[in-house]
Amino acid sequence: MKESIRILAIGDVYGKPGRNTYREKALALKEKYHPHLIIVNGENSAGGRGINEKAYRAIKEAGADVITTGNHIFDNKGYEEVIDREDVIVAYNFPPESPGNRIFSKEIMGRKVYVITLLGRVFMDPRVDCPFRKALEARERDPDGIFIVDFHAEATSEKTALGFHLDGKYALVFGTHTHVQTADEKILPGGTAYITDIGMTGSMLSVIGADPEKTVPRFMYPHYREKADPCKKDLRVQGIYVEVDPEIGRAIHIERFEI
What we know:
Oligomer: single chain
Strand content: 25-35%
Largest sheet: 8 strands, mixed
Distance between the termini: 29 Å
Number of strands: 14
Number of domains: 1
Number of helices: 5
Protein backbone atom coordinates (compact mmCIF):
# COMPACT_ATOMS: atom_id res chain seq x y z
CA MET A 1 0.00 0.00 0.00
CA LYS A 2 1.40 3.39 -1.00
CA GLU A 3 1.92 6.02 1.65
CA SER A 4 -0.30 9.08 1.89
CA ILE A 5 0.56 12.63 2.88
CA ARG A 6 -0.80 12.91 6.42
CA ILE A 7 -2.08 16.27 7.63
CA LEU A 8 -3.29 17.53 11.00
CA ALA A 9 -5.23 20.79 11.30
CA ILE A 10 -5.79 22.09 14.84
CA GLY A 11 -8.77 24.30 15.64
CA ASP A 12 -8.42 27.90 16.87
CA VAL A 13 -6.13 27.94 19.92
CA TYR A 14 -7.81 30.20 22.49
CA GLY A 15 -5.53 32.01 24.94
CA LYS A 16 -3.16 30.46 27.44
CA PRO A 17 -5.53 27.59 28.38
CA GLY A 18 -5.70 26.62 24.71
CA ARG A 19 -1.94 26.89 24.23
CA ASN A 20 -1.24 24.72 27.27
CA THR A 21 -3.81 22.14 26.24
CA TYR A 22 -2.38 21.85 22.74
CA ARG A 23 1.14 21.45 24.13
CA GLU A 24 -0.07 18.71 26.50
CA LYS A 25 -1.87 16.77 23.77
CA ALA A 26 0.47 17.37 20.82
CA LEU A 27 2.65 14.32 21.43
CA ALA A 28 -0.34 11.99 21.66
CA LEU A 29 -1.70 13.37 18.39
CA LYS A 30 1.66 12.93 16.66
CA GLU A 31 2.02 9.37 17.94
CA LYS A 32 -1.47 8.48 16.72
CA TYR A 33 -1.42 10.11 13.28
CA HIS A 34 2.29 10.51 12.40
CA PRO A 35 1.61 13.70 10.41
CA HIS A 36 3.85 15.11 7.71
CA LEU A 37 2.27 18.55 8.15
CA ILE A 38 0.70 20.21 11.20
CA ILE A 39 -1.40 23.34 10.70
CA VAL A 40 -2.50 25.27 13.79
CA ASN A 41 -4.84 28.25 13.80
CA GLY A 42 -3.30 30.80 16.19
CA GLU A 43 -5.85 33.54 15.58
CA ASN A 44 -6.86 33.79 19.25
CA SER A 45 -3.76 32.37 20.90
CA ALA A 46 -2.70 35.55 22.75
CA GLY A 47 -5.30 36.30 25.42
CA GLY A 48 -8.14 35.36 23.09
CA ARG A 49 -7.37 37.91 20.35
CA GLY A 50 -4.43 37.82 17.98
CA ILE A 51 -0.94 36.40 18.41
CA ASN A 52 2.37 37.49 19.94
CA GLU A 53 5.85 36.06 20.45
CA LYS A 54 4.90 34.07 23.56
CA ALA A 55 1.94 32.45 21.87
CA TYR A 56 3.95 31.78 18.72
CA ARG A 57 6.70 30.00 20.64
CA ALA A 58 4.26 27.85 22.60
CA ILE A 59 2.55 26.63 19.44
CA LYS A 60 5.79 26.06 17.55
CA GLU A 61 7.42 24.18 20.43
CA ALA A 62 4.47 21.78 20.34
CA GLY A 63 5.37 20.92 16.75
CA ALA A 64 3.33 23.17 14.45
CA ASP A 65 4.73 23.57 10.94
CA VAL A 66 2.61 26.59 10.10
CA ILE A 67 0.36 28.93 12.08
CA THR A 68 -2.67 30.31 10.27
CA THR A 69 -4.48 33.42 11.46
CA GLY A 70 -7.65 35.39 10.72
CA ASN A 71 -9.48 38.65 11.28
CA HIS A 72 -7.93 39.31 14.73
CA ILE A 73 -4.30 39.08 13.62
CA PHE A 74 -3.68 42.81 14.20
CA ASP A 75 -5.67 43.07 17.47
CA ASN A 76 -2.78 42.17 19.77
CA LYS A 77 -0.03 44.77 19.95
CA GLY A 78 2.55 41.96 19.90
CA TYR A 79 1.73 40.90 16.34
CA GLU A 80 4.71 42.89 15.03
CA GLU A 81 7.04 40.38 16.71
CA VAL A 82 5.88 37.48 14.53
CA ILE A 83 4.17 38.94 11.46
CA ASP A 84 7.16 38.46 9.15
CA ARG A 85 7.92 34.85 10.08
CA GLU A 86 7.69 32.40 7.19
CA ASP A 87 5.65 29.97 9.28
CA VAL A 88 2.98 32.55 10.21
CA ILE A 89 0.56 33.43 7.43
CA VAL A 90 -2.09 36.13 7.17
CA ALA A 91 -5.12 36.12 4.89
CA TYR A 92 -4.25 35.78 1.22
CA ASN A 93 -7.12 38.16 0.40
CA PHE A 94 -5.87 41.00 2.62
CA PRO A 95 -5.04 44.18 0.68
CA PRO A 96 -1.45 44.07 -0.65
CA GLU A 97 -0.48 46.94 1.67
CA SER A 98 -1.18 44.84 4.77
CA PRO A 99 1.90 43.26 6.40
CA GLY A 100 2.56 39.56 6.71
CA ASN A 101 3.32 36.47 4.63
CA ARG A 102 0.51 35.16 2.47
CA ILE A 103 1.54 31.56 1.76
CA PHE A 104 3.47 28.69 3.34
CA SER A 105 5.04 25.80 1.49
CA LYS A 106 6.68 22.51 2.43
CA GLU A 107 7.98 19.68 0.28
CA ILE A 108 6.47 16.34 1.29
CA MET A 109 7.11 13.06 -0.51
CA GLY A 110 8.43 14.90 -3.55
CA ARG A 111 5.39 17.19 -3.81
CA LYS A 112 5.16 20.89 -2.95
CA VAL A 113 2.35 21.45 -0.46
CA TYR A 114 1.01 25.00 -0.03
CA VAL A 115 -1.12 26.42 2.79
CA ILE A 116 -3.04 29.69 2.66
CA THR A 117 -5.64 31.44 4.82
CA LEU A 118 -8.63 33.29 3.42
CA LEU A 119 -11.10 35.57 5.20
CA GLY A 120 -14.80 35.37 4.47
CA ARG A 121 -16.82 38.47 3.67
CA VAL A 122 -20.32 37.50 4.84
CA PHE A 123 -20.81 39.05 8.32
CA MET A 124 -17.06 39.78 8.25
CA ASP A 125 -14.77 42.58 7.05
CA PRO A 126 -15.86 43.73 3.57
CA ARG A 127 -12.47 45.38 2.95
CA VAL A 128 -10.84 42.09 1.92
CA ASP A 129 -10.74 40.83 -1.65
CA CYS A 130 -13.06 38.10 -2.93
CA PRO A 131 -11.92 34.81 -1.36
CA PHE A 132 -13.28 32.79 -4.27
CA ARG A 133 -11.17 34.62 -6.83
CA LYS A 134 -8.09 34.88 -4.60
CA ALA A 135 -8.14 31.12 -3.94
CA LEU A 136 -7.85 30.43 -7.66
CA GLU A 137 -5.20 33.11 -8.00
CA ALA A 138 -3.10 31.38 -5.33
CA ARG A 139 -3.55 28.06 -7.13
CA GLU A 140 -2.03 29.54 -10.26
CA ARG A 141 1.31 29.97 -8.47
CA ASP A 142 2.05 26.29 -8.99
CA PRO A 143 -0.31 24.19 -11.15
CA ASP A 144 1.48 21.04 -9.97
CA GLY A 145 1.31 21.89 -6.26
CA ILE A 146 -1.01 20.52 -3.59
CA PHE A 147 -3.06 23.33 -2.03
CA ILE A 148 -4.77 23.64 1.36
CA VAL A 149 -6.86 26.55 2.62
CA ASP A 150 -7.95 27.56 6.11
CA PHE A 151 -11.14 29.53 5.39
CA HIS A 152 -11.65 31.85 8.36
CA ALA A 153 -15.29 32.79 7.90
CA GLU A 154 -18.58 33.24 9.76
CA ALA A 155 -21.28 32.01 7.41
CA THR A 156 -21.62 28.27 6.89
CA SER A 157 -23.10 28.92 3.44
CA GLU A 158 -20.03 30.88 2.35
CA LYS A 159 -17.72 28.16 3.62
CA THR A 160 -19.66 25.40 1.88
CA ALA A 161 -19.77 27.38 -1.34
CA LEU A 162 -15.99 27.82 -1.31
CA GLY A 163 -15.57 24.08 -0.78
CA PHE A 164 -17.52 23.32 -3.96
CA HIS A 165 -15.81 26.18 -5.80
CA LEU A 166 -12.41 24.63 -5.07
CA ASP A 167 -13.41 20.98 -5.44
CA GLY A 168 -10.82 19.21 -7.54
CA LYS A 169 -8.48 22.20 -7.32
CA TYR A 170 -7.54 22.08 -3.62
CA ALA A 171 -6.75 18.96 -1.63
CA LEU A 172 -8.28 20.36 1.57
CA VAL A 173 -10.69 23.17 2.43
CA PHE A 174 -11.40 23.56 6.13
CA GLY A 175 -13.19 26.27 8.07
CA THR A 176 -12.22 28.10 11.25
CA HIS A 177 -13.46 31.15 13.22
CA THR A 178 -16.76 29.98 14.75
CA HIS A 179 -15.00 27.72 17.30
CA VAL A 180 -17.74 25.10 17.00
CA GLN A 181 -16.77 21.82 15.36
CA THR A 182 -19.18 20.75 12.65
CA ALA A 183 -20.15 17.18 11.78
CA ASP A 184 -20.06 17.52 7.99
CA GLU A 185 -16.59 16.27 7.09
CA LYS A 186 -16.56 14.71 3.63
CA ILE A 187 -14.63 14.10 0.42
CA LEU A 188 -16.28 16.15 -2.31
CA PRO A 189 -16.83 14.61 -5.79
CA GLY A 190 -13.63 16.10 -7.22
CA GLY A 191 -11.45 14.78 -4.41
CA THR A 192 -11.31 17.76 -2.04
CA ALA A 193 -11.57 17.06 1.69
CA TYR A 194 -14.00 19.52 3.29
CA ILE A 195 -15.37 20.48 6.71
CA THR A 196 -17.23 23.67 7.63
CA ASP A 197 -15.39 24.22 10.92
CA ILE A 198 -12.67 22.18 12.62
CA GLY A 199 -13.54 23.54 16.08
CA MET A 200 -11.47 25.06 18.85
CA THR A 201 -8.61 24.31 21.21
CA GLY A 202 -9.75 25.62 24.57
CA SER A 203 -12.65 25.40 26.99
CA MET A 204 -15.80 23.54 25.99
CA LEU A 205 -17.65 25.16 28.96
CA SER A 206 -17.24 28.65 27.59
CA VAL A 207 -18.62 31.13 25.11
CA ILE A 208 -16.38 30.11 22.20
CA GLY A 209 -13.39 30.13 24.55
CA ALA A 210 -14.23 33.03 26.86
CA ASP A 211 -15.48 32.99 30.47
CA PRO A 212 -19.33 32.99 30.40
CA GLU A 213 -19.58 35.11 33.56
CA LYS A 214 -18.12 38.09 31.71
CA THR A 215 -19.33 37.23 28.23
CA VAL A 216 -23.06 36.80 28.82
CA PRO A 217 -23.51 40.38 30.18
CA ARG A 218 -21.99 41.76 26.96
CA PHE A 219 -25.02 40.41 25.09
CA MET A 220 -27.45 41.82 27.66
CA TYR A 221 -26.23 45.30 28.58
CA PRO A 222 -25.02 47.99 26.15
CA HIS A 223 -22.83 49.59 28.81
CA TYR A 224 -20.96 46.39 29.75
CA ARG A 225 -17.43 46.40 28.38
CA GLU A 226 -15.45 44.29 30.84
CA LYS A 227 -12.97 42.01 29.08
CA ALA A 228 -13.74 38.30 29.26
CA ASP A 229 -10.72 36.15 30.07
CA PRO A 230 -10.18 32.73 28.48
CA CYS A 231 -12.07 30.02 30.36
CA LYS A 232 -10.11 27.18 31.97
CA LYS A 233 -12.83 24.52 32.31
CA ASP A 234 -13.14 21.30 30.29
CA LEU A 235 -10.17 21.97 28.01
CA ARG A 236 -9.91 20.04 24.76
CA VAL A 237 -8.18 19.99 21.38
CA GLN A 238 -10.37 19.74 18.30
CA GLY A 239 -9.29 19.36 14.71
CA ILE A 240 -9.08 17.08 11.69
CA TYR A 241 -6.80 14.43 10.26
CA VAL A 242 -6.58 14.19 6.47
CA GLU A 243 -4.76 11.89 4.06
CA VAL A 244 -3.85 13.03 0.55
CA ASP A 245 -2.73 10.81 -2.31
CA PRO A 246 0.65 12.30 -3.34
CA GLU A 247 0.33 11.07 -6.93
CA ILE A 248 -2.96 12.75 -7.79
CA GLY A 249 -2.93 15.47 -5.12
CA ARG A 250 -6.44 14.64 -3.91
CA ALA A 251 -7.77 13.66 -0.50
CA ILE A 252 -8.66 10.07 0.25
CA HIS A 253 -9.58 10.36 3.93
CA ILE A 254 -10.82 12.93 6.45
CA GLU A 255 -11.81 12.51 10.08
CA ARG A 256 -12.45 14.94 12.90
CA PHE A 257 -11.15 14.42 16.42
CA GLU A 258 -11.50 15.79 19.91
CA ILE A 259 -9.23 14.98 22.86
